[in-house]
Specification:
Layout lengths: L11 H27 L10 H33 L4 H15 L3 H15 L7 H27 L2 H9 L4 H31 L11 H12 L2 H29 L8
Helix pairs in contact: 1-2, 1-9, 2-3, 2-5, 2-7, 2-8, 3-5, 4-5, 5-7, 6-7, 7-9, 8-9
Family: Belongs to the binding-protein-dependent transport system permease family. HisMQ subfamily.
InterPro entries: AA_ABC_transptr_permease_3TM (IPR010065), ArtM/GltK/GlnP/TcyL/YhdX-like (IPR043429), MetI-like (IPR000515), MetI-like_sf (IPR035906)
Pfam family, one: BPD_transp_1
Length: 260
């Protein structure tokens, strides 16, 4: 982890911020220079370097948009799942049950092909359909992670805060949710990294992301080894950088409880 590179006398926030900034800068540099770097490779990679670079950018866009929406969706679904309103609990429970019980590929295909048939005015382009499906999918898994975090906070803390005269909204925002978020952070991070890889399923509806690019090139050149190895290495680099970003966030919140 990049946090090990910084001076030991730095505080946890300083090392976390330095790691976060460094990882983000590395990601920008890698994505910006990916086409130039791949252009130095022999064919079929060098001849299609620009396509690989554009596919990698599309993969990142899918991940960032779906991850942000999925996080908000997961928090709202978790709150609904733990609320005292029976209707909200039922709707949230049904959403989580359906999404977690069906394959992501089927959900992507449904959003693109079946939804316009059911709702003719709601015809989404391929990228938007993929974003919606990925957001709904990761949101359901995030909801269970956040719900577990909420349930893990001792009830006595909320009761003590209410006894001190804090309103319910402040009890939740100042006492319950910060602790629940810290507990939920590791699975939320894992879901986000998995989302980067799951975005490859968007190729099924024609989104020109990294996997789709690799599949097209290997079909045209009949050189699957070089092409798919390049795709795999590019995914590995992206997931490594994303993992460094998320690890810096975990380190900032002291998820492991080391206080160092």
């Amino acid at each position: 982890m990049l946090t090990a590179l910084w001076p030991s006398h730095w505080s946890r926030p300083q090392r976390s911020n330095a790691t976060l900034i460094t990882a983000l800068l590395l990601m920008v540099v890698v994505v910006s220079l990916l086409g130039d770097l791949l252009s130095l490779m022999p064919e079929p990679i060098g001849d299609h370097a620009a396509e690989f670079a554009e596919g990698a950018r599309t993969t990142l866009y899918l991940t960032l948009i779906s991850g942000a929406v999925g996080l908000l969706l997961g928090v709202f679904a978790a709150l609904a799942r733990t609320s005292g309103n029976a209707l909200l609990r039922s709707v949230s429970g049904a959403y989580i049950w359906i999404i977690r019980g069906t394959p992501l590929l089927v959900q992507i295909l449904f959003m693109y092909f079946a939804l316009p048939v059911l709702v003719p005015w709601l015809s989404l382009p391929d990228f938007a359909a993929a974003c919606v499906a990925l957001s709904l999918n990761v949101g359901a898994y995030n909801a269970e992670a956040v719900r577990a975090g909420l349930n893990a906070v001792p009830r006595g803390q909320a009761e003590a805060a209410r006894a001190l005269g804090l309103p319910k909204s402040r009890v939740f925002l100042d006492v319950v949710f910060p602790q629940a978020f810290k507990i939920s952070l590791p699975p939320l991070v894992s879901n986000f990294v998995a989302l980067l890889k799951d975005s490859s399923l968007a190729y099924a509806i024609g989104v020109v992301e990294l996997t789709n690019v690799g599949n097209r090139i290997q079909s045209a050149t009949f050189q699957p080894v070089e092409t798919l190895v390049t795709v795999g290495i590019t995914y590995l680099v992206l997931t490594t950088l994303v993992t460094q970003v998320t690890a810096a966030i975990e380190y900032r919140f002291d998820v492991e409880g080391r206080q160092k």
